[in-house]
Amino acid sequence: MLEELEIRDLGPIRHALLTPAPGMTAITGETGAGKSMLLSAIKLISGGTADSGRVSAGAKESWTQGVFALGTAKPERNGDDGRGSRVLAVARNAGVEPEDGELFLSRVVPVSGRSRAVVNGRSVPRAVLGELAGELVTIHGQADQLRIAASARQREFLDMVAGDEHELERYRKAWDALCALDDRLERMEHQEASARQQADYLRESIDRINRVDPQPGEDDELKARRSHIEHAADIAQGVSGALGALDASQVNVDTDDASASELINRAVQSLRSIHADGNFAELANRLESINADLSDVVYSLSRQLDVEDDMDDLDELNARIHELGELTRRWGPTLADVIAWRDKAVFDMEDLDASPEKIAELRQERAKLFDDAMAAAERLSAVRRSAARSLAATVTGELSSLAMDGAELKINVAKREGTGKTASWPLDANGCDDISFMFTPYEGAPELPMGKSASGGELSRLMLALELSAADRHSGDASPMTFIFDEVDAGVGGKTAVELGRRLARLAASAQVIVVTHLAQVASWADRQFVVTKEPPDADDDAVGVVTTVEPVEGDARIREIARMLSGSESEASLDHARELLDSSRI
Asked: Where are the alpha helices (H) located in 273-334, listed in sequence order?
């Protein structure tokens, strides 16, 4: 909901501050006063194209800011995220967090140079403003509402009214699976020479690695064993010398020399035989601990003498180490890397190996996925057709109350027929339907696509009827949409104008409505009214030129404005008529 709109130096508006009502707000004023600049300001903060020519004379830049309240983000029915949740997602993707549940969308347009888009003090691409405003504001002006003439916009509107989020989500999952398999099939069926060469390379590499059959860490173990064999004489001499010094009996069974362990034991016994005060017992314990470690060393050294490596094994070891080295040089640096590369290459080769059997298998799988997607598309289509009949009937009924007797809206939901250009025909990312809104503006007129068969005023009223018919979709959202209507009262007067105001007020019960109007019968229904006034140049400052002001009117001031709109004067009769109109304009 738009809480505040502030404008500086945009066209004739030097400064304006609007605080629209949560319900219905009317913007009034004489023709040419500058009401269009308010719409221009909203389009700027909606990501519209900037025009430096609209910067006020003498100013360096124009600045516009809209403050939007997000309300409480909550899910809509059928599992779809609420509008507040979608706005939060767009903002956070741009690195922006709301402040106290509010978003500040601003746009600076300099006289020269590029415009700047800012959200909550953070510069963002202009497209981010467009994404955010697309969830927050809908402008129904003659130029803006022509966008719904596009088939894609009509489909989105119908889906919103139908509440088919669940069916649409299930279809798109099936569609994504079908597209993924189609991409894989296309790659396999159109392999070029380089792809086939890559498949051959992978196949030969995998075979070579499998023939060697490396094990993780095997090369390090073999190198350690080779080193032992190559230095066997030095190892034997050194170990024998160490054992001879520690325990001569390990190398010469006929020796009578006491071992180091026996000598330590004698020392321990001597210490323990002392029966006097001192740390002799502690020293004995330390010697016993040393003796235990010494025994382990002697045991380990003696086992080294028992290992007999055959010099004939050295050639086999070197050959194996060479084989493993060839693998690590090409796919290493370690054997673990070689094994990981081989395992990945096995999966890569499956996609590159376009064997007839594999392609036939994938085509069979594709046929099943296509059937699944088509079934999901037909369920979605059934929901759309039902919603289209209901929406068209409701809109046609509303049009008769808006001075458009004989006008009719038809919504065609047609399954695509014939032969398409893609293998997935008649499916696309949104189902199997062609959707078109066909409009007849008056009885006897030809039925033509929406946007080609209506004037600006008729199109505005048609959009109002559409929004009224979809109002139940907005009523449950904690972040109501802001609707802005321009030219909705073109060609309307009398009782029809009263009905138009009543329906705008009805829409304002579930959404925020801002209407630019020339009719008192419409403005009288508003909860808040702003008047746009054009003031002549200041005699003391001719450079300023014409200035447009935007001011709220309440109480007697509003009665006078309604009277002016009714008769162009503030006579007692027109003032009485204005009071009566305001009193009667209540739902």
From this structure: 280-306, 313-331
